[in-house]
Structure formats: C-alpha cells, structure tokens
Amino acid sequence: MGNILLKNIVCKGAVSDIYIEGNRISKVVPAGTSISDGYEWEVTDCSGKTVMPGFVNMHTHAAMSMMRGVGEDIAFHDWIDRIWDVESKIDEEYVYQATKVACLEMIKTGTTTFNDHYWHMPMAHKAAIEMGLRPVLAYVICDRNDPEESERQKVECRQMYEEAMTWNDRSVFAIAIHAIYSVREEMIVWASRFAREHGLKVHIHVSETQKEIKDCMEQHNGMSPVEYLDSLGVLGPDVIAAHTLWLSDNDVRILGERGVTCVHNVNSNLKLASGYMFRYNELRDAGANICLGTDGCASSNNLDMLETMKTSAMIQKAWREDPSAMPLDELVAMATANAGKALGLEIGKIEEDALADLLIIDTQNYNFLSPGSFEANLVYSAHSDCIDSVICDGEFVMRERVVPGEKEILAQAQKVLNKII
Amino acid sequence: MGNILLKNIVCKGAVSDIYIEGNRISKVVPAGTSISDGYEWEVTDCSGKTVMPGFVNMHTHAAMSMMRGVGEDIAFHDWIDRIWDVESKIDEEYVYQATKVACLEMIKTGTTTFNDHYWHMPMAHKAAIEMGLRPVLAYVICDRNDPEESERQKVECRQMYEEAMTWNDRSVFAIAIHAIYSVREEMIVWASRFAREHGLKVHIHVSETQKEIKDCMEQHNGMSPVEYLDSLGVLGPDVIAAHTLWLSDNDVRILGERGVTCVHNVNSNLKLASGYMFRYNELRDAGANICLGTDGCASSNNLDMLETMKTSAMIQKAWREDPSAMPLDELVAMATANAGKALGLEIGKIEEDALADLLIIDTQNYNFLSPGSFEANLVYSAHSDCIDSVICDGEFVMRERVVPGEKEILAQAQKVLNKII
C-alpha cells in the first residue's frame, strides 16, 4: 500500500484532492490545497472524474460465476436440477478459478466488498485476496436435516474459524445458515450461538419464495420463517437476511425491532419469478437496515450492482405506482453506507479515517451530459463501463478499465470449465 | 460503401465469412470458403466474435438525450412541468446536437435503426444521416385540440412529405399522431388517411396510462383508446402503437386482428410508474406484432436496447410468476426481426440480400464464459460494452468501440445545453 493522492476529483459536488495513507483515507481537501507532510505521494490526476464509495454486494455466491445461462426460460425445478448437475462436478480448483472470475467482474463493475455464501471457502478466500478485494466469507451450515452431517459441520466450522483467525486483516469470517428448510433447528440455534460467542455475522436466506412460507407455517405451528427464527432467538443486528421478499406486517415489525439487515436481490427474484413486491418502505420505516445484493450468476446472471440499483428502484416505483419510491439517496446508501453499518466496517463512505474503497467514475460521456445529478445519471443512465478505476483497501485494483492479469484469469477459468461441460 | 468481408465470425452458431457488397449482405459462407469474384474486399478478422442484427429502437424521442435526470423521484405532474420548462427553450440547433448525442449513444449500444417522434424533424434527419444510422422520422401531428393549429400542421405535414421525398434512401418518413388526447378526431382521421394515401407508417402513443383509458371512456361513449381508434378506421398493419400497456381483452383482440405493431417501453413504464403488466403473451397469441423501444431519455434515461430486452423479460417472468415467460428467441426477435416486419425493411436478420445492419459482439470476456447460449449471456449477463463494432447500411459506424468524432459531438452538445440551463 502506497500513499495515493487523487487530484482534482469531484467529491460530494466539490473539486477535491483526496489523500490515501496505507489503506485509509487521510484527508479530503479542496483541490490545490497545499499540504506539507514530507510524504511521497503517487499522484493520479482525476480531472473530469467523480469519486464515490465502492459498492458492497451483500448477498452473492461468487463461484457460480461460470453458471450464468445454464438454465434459461425453464421452470424453477428444472433450473435447480441443472444447477445441481453442474455443482456435483465442481471441486476446490473450480471454486478458486470461478471466484477469480467473479472478482474480476466485481472489480469491473465497481464492487469492492462482497458477502459470499458458498462451498470451499478457503479457495474463495485465496482468490479474493489475490484479486485485492475485501471479502466476507461464511462457513455454510447446511446439514439437509441429517444429524451426522450437523456434527461434521460443527467440527469443520470450528476449524474454519481457527483458520480464519490467521487471515489477512482485510477478510471477514462469518457464519452462514443456509435456510430454515435445509438446516435442523438444533443446528440453527448452535450456529447462531457460535456466531454470537465469536462476534461473527450470520448470513441466511429468509422468506425467498411463497413455498418457503407455506412449508414453514405447516411445520412450525403457523409461524412464518421470520417468526420461527425469532422464536429461536436468532434475529438481531448481527443477522444479514437475504431476500426477505414475502413478509407479513408482523414479519416487518420483527425485522425492524431486531435491527436485522435485509438484503434485496431484485434480479434473482424477478428472473426466477420468486416475486417483486419487496416491502422496502415498510422495512425502512420499521427500522430494518436495507442493503442490495446480486445473488449468484446462476440466478441473476451477473454481479453488477449498478444494474441492481436501477432495477430495484424501477420495480418499487412501478408496483407502488409512485415515481418517488426508493429515491436516489437511499438507493446509493443501500449499495454503500448501509452495508458498512451491517458489517461493522468503515466502508461505504468517503471521510477521513474511513477505509479507502473507492470508485473513480468517468463523467466525460453522454450518460452524464445533462442537467441531472451525478447520482441520477450514474444509476439510471450509465452502465458499469463508466467506472474508470477502482481502489480497494488503499490499492488500485483497476486503472482505466484494466485489471492486471485479466486474460490469464479467463484462460485458467476456461480450463476448469471445460472439465465439467 | 465499400465491399466488406467479416472473416471467421460466429453467425448462428457457425464460424463464417460474411460478405457485404454496398449496403447489403451478399454472402454468408463457412469460414475459409474460397470465393473468386474479382472484387477487392476490406477484410476484418472477427475471430472470437459473434455477429447479430443491429437493434431497432421502435419508439424513442431522440432529441431528449440531454434531458436525462431532469426530474427524478418526483410525481408525474412535477416531472412533466420540468420537461416542458426545458422544451420551451429548445430550438433547431438543440435538436440537431441532441440527436447527434442520441445517435452516438445508439451506436455504442448497438441500435442501427430508430423510430423517432420529435419536433424539428429535418434537424434530426441531418444528425442521423451524418452519424450513419437508419432513421425513421415522423412528422408529429399534435394540435392540442386547436382547429387553427390542425390546419397549419396539415400544410406543414405536406411540405415535410415533399421534402422527405428528396431524402437519402436510408431514411424513412412516417406520420406521428401524438395521442388521442392531444389531437382532434378530425385530424386523427386526416393524418391516418394521409399516411395510407402515401404508403407511410403511423406512429402513435396508445393506452400508456390508466388516466388515458379513463378519460377516453368518459369522452367516447365508454370506448377504450384502442376501440376509439378502431372506430375511426385508424388501426391496421401500418400502425406502430407505442406503449399499449393498459389493454382489455377486447383491445388485445382488436390489436391482433388488425395486425398492429405494439411497442413495449418497459423502462419508461416502470420509471414513471405507468404500469408493468404488459400483456405480451396475449398480444402475441392474438396476432399482434410486438417490438421494443426505450422511449426518450427524459423518462427512461438511456437508449440501451440490451437493457430494455433484459428488463422486459425479467418483469414478464415476475408478474406472471413464470420463469419461462418471454423466452430469449422471442425477445431477440422483438428487438430485431419483428421491427423489420413492422417497418417493411429488410433489416433485423442475417441472410443474403438483407440490408447490412450488423453488430459484432466480443465474446472473449467473463460475460460469455459459461455453458449458456450466446443469447442468454448477451441479454442477461452482458452490457452494451460487449458490442465491439457496428455496421449500418454497409458501413462501419463504430470500430472497436470508437465512433469517429465522439469528443467533438459531446463538446458541441455541451454548448447548446449550456444555453438552456
């Protein structure tokens, strides 16, 4: 990590100089302000560009990056059969290479932190660290209601925790509970307690489909998945609940009171026809923390947070019949600052002492040629190719759209893909 | 127009050589086939790339390209006030420059033909021809229920028709009837007859909002806008109806029986909260021809047909609760071949004697690194930056993402924009 100076960059509307010392922002000052600190600065002239925090993808399965398009225009049960067929063939090397491809895509589309949920986590960790991103990697509890598997996973989970204690500072270890329908009750409680004992976040799929709600109510005395998890004492501000799509008023109240982070995965929900009426206004007003995710490429086909932001807002406006629904400032916060809050990290904001996870956006193009605000043009008009450069943890991971080693990453990934198709 | 040879390009799954003579495709043969014709060919090696027809944007207002972001997160009546405020200040020079910006965006996002609906049409025509695109430009009838204005527009319409007869072969002249609520009945009938007498297409906004339906039924003996237009004898295969969002079963039947082209503008409909339940399956099954459009940048914020394709399919799948809704082959046809049919042009297909309006797609990137089909990866994973080069009417209008004169176009447009803000 060097000492980086971004000169003449627009920051919150003002042309500024941003100083990055090590992995943190040290100063944000009006452009041209004289600073005498005796340091050597690596200067990048950012005239005509705007800075914003890196995006945080709060729910994904990174290693599914090479499963995009595997099942299109088919019913859910046929789709999941195809995915399982592919997953039955993958190994550690596949996860390593596929996570590198995912990181490449995330860098090119402006994501600096991702909250991952997949198998062979040490390989995903290796890939993310090599690519320079900030990963949140969960050990996935998924016993498929087999008590022997529960015991095996308890042992493995403890081992992973020990291993994670040796990781790079940049990585965050978490516990994933796959879902209420795939994990035994005793194991849900164990995982939740293990996480709390060790100060770890819990990442769980909750209330994604109508079937999940119906099955849960039948099996648990009429309780919804949210009510059931709350009855087990699982829900709290340490919980990151992916989807939370089918919610009753009582579910909304509980998620708000417990301060749960709800992650909206709009593209996955639309494409798999899971639903679209995410109760954004109600969750926000109840006090839940709301973030955005892409889900894995098998269901949403890319990891593009800017696309996710646009689609999320468009759908809210449409079904609520209210063009003011999910306004831009809240939308940007969902993709940045709210995630920092959820993860307890100093990310998603540009201020002194925050971690230096930044996007440099090129606004010298037709998408920004209008009287509209930067945020409006970024979210509603532009695509991720306006992201000129990306800094994560104080280091450039992309400069002028070039990610080091891109060709080699694709070539290596093609080799492991060829083995399974 | 030269003689272009695209070598080693994937066409409909087979590695091919494509010969373009003048403005038409002359041969599509397996790569390496020896052709002895005595011509000099300008050869482009397209290894690792795939060809497809250029997109056709069947409903837009190109010169609104610099109004993106003008009104965000506000109610419709506040939004329209802001747009009218901007429109009150624009002149011919503005329309010329703004249409050039729109053409630049269309080229970069793969649109080769656009069906435009705006004022100062001769300036839009000049811009589109200079940029090398294939424009369909309508004289817009919009008398706002003022009989004097009707008469003025009849005269001007005839003049425009005469002028259009002198245009470049590439341009198509059409008649736009703004909408049933903004044009007097007598004038709707006049415009429709004028179009039929001269073999012109009619471009009209139909059934965009619930208010339009309600007002029409109150004013026209309970008839919907579709029923009302049909009662006037307007509807037929020469009609391109934009939006057709709020339709009764009887409306669907009429549109199908008359062979009307219905243009779905999903992003505009979502963003303005007009609605989202476009009756795609029903219209298709009734026999209507269905195409896609972006609408103007003031309402949908960009002119990206690939984004429009993805969002259209995602929304259908979601509200129909059917992941197989709007399948990929139909989606691609809506953006290409169906538009050729609507306009009576040999575009939207790759075959001998078709007009050479082609996209060269770079598939050597992460979006296409999967066992998914080309179409799946293009629509659901990629963005328009995978479009490497664009050919319109037998000429390259973009090569390797470079459009000649891009910087100068933006600089000139900035000048006219500065005058009105």
Radius of gyration of chain A: 21 Å
Please mark out the parts of chain A with pLDDT under 50 across 5 or more consecutive residues, or reply none. none
Overall geometric form of chain A: globular
Secondary-structure class of chain A:
alpha/beta
CATH architecture of the largest domain in chain A: Alpha-Beta Barrel
Provide the CATH top-level class of the largest domain in chain A: Alpha Beta
* Portion in strands of chain A: 15-25%
Largest sheet descriptor of chain A:
8 strands, parallel
* Record field, number of beta strands of chain A: 16
Q: What would the average pLDDT of chain A be, to the nearest integer?
A: 96
Helix content of chain A: 25-40%
Number of domains of chain A: 2
Q: Could you state the oligomeric state of the chains shown?
A: homodimer
CATH fold group of the largest domain in chain A: TIM Barrel
Chain pair with largest interface = A-B, 67 and 67 residues
State the strand order across the main sheet of chain A: 6-7-8-9-10-11-12-13
CATH level-4 homologous superfamily of the largest domain in chain A: Metal-dependent hydrolases
Report the end-to-end length of chain A measured between terminal Cα atoms. Answer: 40 Å
